[in-house]
Task: structure prediction
Amino acid sequence: MNTERISPLKKILSVFIPFILMPALVISGLFVFRARGMLWMITAVCALTLVIFFCGFEKRKTGTRRLVLTAVFIAFASIGRIICSPLPGVNPITAVTVLAAVYLGGEAGFMIGAFSVLISNIAASQGTWTPFQMLAWGLIGMVAGLLGRFLEGHKIRLCIYTLTAGVAYSLIMDIFTVIWEMNGFTVSAYRAVIITALPFTATYALSNVLFTLLLEKPFREKLGRIKVKYEI
Result:
């Protein structure tokens, strides 16, 4: 078994960056730079995502295996989103991110969620919303990884989490909508956007549950075996 411990500094960074630094950066960047700083914001989020991932590195050998698996699931989630793009509000990124994060850890989950958005947006379209999407799906993966032991092997718990994650994703993107449209934030405007987005939120959240039901068993069988065999 891999008994090497992650340093306290890495543990602190793996919490501070996704939950404090990156949200502050994304929100303040939207206020300050608007569309002018889109590429810089995307680059910053990508760089911080890599830092988060490597904060979870332990031994070089297992870390490399984890990186390869993470790349595979980024590709899988990206292709799945592109295939489902004709169906508004339906895509498998949340389900793939959550299921992979449960077995590979929160840092890998953040990277899968964030980079899947970046890559699939090449087809869907990049914009000022991209950093918010990367943050939202990244956090969904990070939290899933932190809850890995609680969620692993429990289909009902996974469905509840992905349903909740779908709603959370919509709420985060509604923050972007209000800031972008009003160049500011008010609770009344946020409430109005939430109500307007209810059909999308419901469709997306329920589709998450469907994808989870379809993918949970093969992920559990394959990733569970890999996790034990390669001590990931």
The radius of gyration is 17 Å. The chain is about 85% helix and 0% strand.
